[in-house]
Please model this.
Amino acid sequence: MQATVSSIARSEARNDAVLLVDDNRAIVDLLTAKILEESDFRVISADTLAKARVILAQERDEVFCAVLDLNLPDAPDGEVVDHVLDLGIPVLVVTGNLSDRAREQVLAKPVLDYVIKHNASELDYVVRAITRRYHAGTIGVLVVDDAASARGYLRRLLEIQGYRVYEAENGQKALEILDIHPSIRIVVTDYHMPHMNGQELTFAIRKKRGRNDLAVIGLSGEDGKQLSVQLLKAGANDFLAKPFEAEEFICRINQNIDLLEQIQTIRDSANRDYLTRLYNRRYLFEVGKTLLANARRGNIGLSAAVLDLDHFKGINDRYGHDGGDQVLQHVAMVLQQSFREADIVARMGGEEFCVLSPNLQGERAIKVFNRVRARIERQSIHFRGEQIRVTCSIGVCMNWHSDLHEMIRNADQALYRAKVEGRNRVHGC
Model:
């Protein structure tokens, strides 16, 4: 009983494997290719329940999700689903057809979802679903309802999907929880609640978070379209009338999460450098103006540093642009890991980077940037069997000026002096 394992070297973390059990070889090959192409997950595949049992006995801790055919040669009635669920692994069911009765039986189990294998679009849905499940633990969903039983029911549905669930029995408590937990991306609120109804809560939420950052889904058992209109005009993203199917509820949750992620991707494409994923020059100056305004008012200190890789042309000449790109990505990773969340780290272009640091000045700033310089110097980049080493020079302007361009020009002049003095050093001004 030999299992097939497909993997890619990009992912070194455990608990990153998808178990795929299907006796249709063509489906297995297509889905495996899609998963490997669009994610960093490994795929472990089997075509029977017996082979799946062997795999799970050996690699249970590495499997975070399973995609299971409902009808296998040695498990014609979905026995593989029960076995995998019993091990605590989230399950996505795939099947060639599904009667109404079989659908009810599948949905009675705590599965993520089911997919009917009609065409390639369903396979795309599978990849989106397992990717969403992998990241669900970082996404918060707040359920607001004055009825504990209603909150408990929705909590169970959401926890099957892997979301981090919070509960509030009224609007005021909901607002307090939102302030404490910025990871919350969706609020599900009943309309009829004492003291603050769903419309009033939505108004209050929109004063804190926009609809592109946090989705509000309204619920109501009252028949009538006017309530949904009121909630949507108040800033809700979606509305569901009670009673609703659990399947529809989860679809609405997942669709709103997908939409928020798509909006974030669009924002990132506008604000981040494509190669390094650092902020780009446009975003640096946009946010930098706000930081500088705060510095002028005396609220914060502000420093600007310009970092340039030494002899980078030689790296490109020797290793080609692929090698140069890998060096830039490595340096970007070091910079991201070395600075605080409040710091703005950007790629200015080519091999030049810029860092804006609130409340980092004087000797402390020089020490911080020297540590970064030394870390870049110590590390090597593995490229096609060779080790590439790189150094950098850094200029730091530690006094804010009337214009951000002037601060960066001064930092650039300090960088030039660091280059003249021998490179691989930090010069402040």
